[in-house]
Design brief:
Helix content is 38%, strand content 24%. With 300 residues, the chain is α/β, with parallel strands linked by helices.
């Protein structure tokens, strides 16, 4: 059984392998080939500290992720998300690896957004808006830049100093939230906000939004007007139980991401689209399997 640190994960996990792996695992999920309950969330301290338990069984991997979600850590030296993933062989039940899950969580979230974006983005998309300046903003910029070039990257953060540091490091420019979004082809919303930071009236027709924050039933980062656009989710079941953006807006779900990847639902290129991502155990296990297999090859 391998014990892998975050440094071990970072050495072998690449966007080239991860993005298509996310397409495959979500296609299997939407096709009913995965056994996975909606994650269990234990509240350690309301709105501040949570522990998530995320098990799944897929044709290629079996296991679970334990994730500590601590919004209270924002602005401190401690990350808001830490995790461990335990991977088993689904055929024999043999434990294969235990690995740090923080980087996997960070990268697989952005990889899923990148895969969905490639399916639905407007033609000749060149302008990217980022609302939020934390690790998910960084990983989304990396994943989306892996797939295409942007002429203009705009960044807004509730903390202006953080936005300025992000802009200097990653070649973006600081704006207001509204100015970032207006005219943008692709918008990423990755905040710790409990109230909407994106207004639907700012979105240009045909834009695509990836929203990865607000993962509690009473939290929002998108307003009702945004949620009236064509809505894509990773899991219908999870979205209607966990996402305040979906629940409180009474939004209609058009498709799961896996249905778009499989072609069972048409990719709506002619509409303004919103992908509300909550993160699934199948994504973690598919990424963990990539890490395990790549590590075994490297050590052979």
């Amino acid at each position: 059984m391998l014990m892998l640190s975050e440094e071990d994960v970072a050495r072998v996990l690449t966007w080239n392998a991860l993005i298509p792996a996310m397409e495959r695992c979500l296609t299997a999920f939407s096709a009913g080939l995965v056994t996975q309950p909606v994650r269990s969330i234990l509240t350690v301290e309301e709105d501040k500290r949570f522990l998530g338990v995320m098990p799944a069984v897929t044709p290629d991997a079996m296991g679970a992720k334990l994730v500590a979600f601590y919004p209270v850590n924002a602005g401190t030296p401690h990350p808001t998300h830490t995790a461990m993933i335990v991977l088993f062989d689904p055929k024999t039940g043999e434990p294969l690896a235990a690995m740090d899950g923080r980087l996997i969580t960070e990268m697989r979230t952005a990889a899923v957004s990148a895969a969905v974006t490639a399916k639905v983005k407007p033609k000749d998309a060149r302008v990217l808006a980022l609302l939020g300046s934390g690790v998910q903003a960084v990983s989304h910029l990396e994943a989306l830049r892996h797939q295409q070039t942007f002429d203009d990257v705009r960044i807004w953060s509730p903390t202006t100093a953080n936005a300025k540091r992000f802009a200097e490091t990653h070649g973006a420019r600081v704006t207001t939230a509204e100015d970032a979004v207006r005219g943008a082809d692709i918008v990423v919303v990755a905040t710790a906000s409990m109230e909407p930071v994106l207004q639907g009236r700012w979105l240009k027709p045909g834009a695509h939004v990836n929203a990865v924050g607000a993962c509690r039933p009473n939290w929002r980062e998108l307003d009702d007007e945004t949620m009236q656009n064509t809505l894509i989710v990773d899991s219908r079941d999870a979205a209607t139980r966990e996402s305040g953006d979906v629940i409180l807006s009474h939004a209609t779900i058009y498709a799961e991401a896996g249905e778009l990847f499989a072609g069972t639902k048409r990719a709506p290129h002619d509409r303004t689209t919103v992908f509300k991502s909550l993160g699934l155990a199948v994504e973690d296990l598919a990424a963990a399997r990539l890490v395990y297999d790549a590590t075994r090859r490297a050590r052979a």
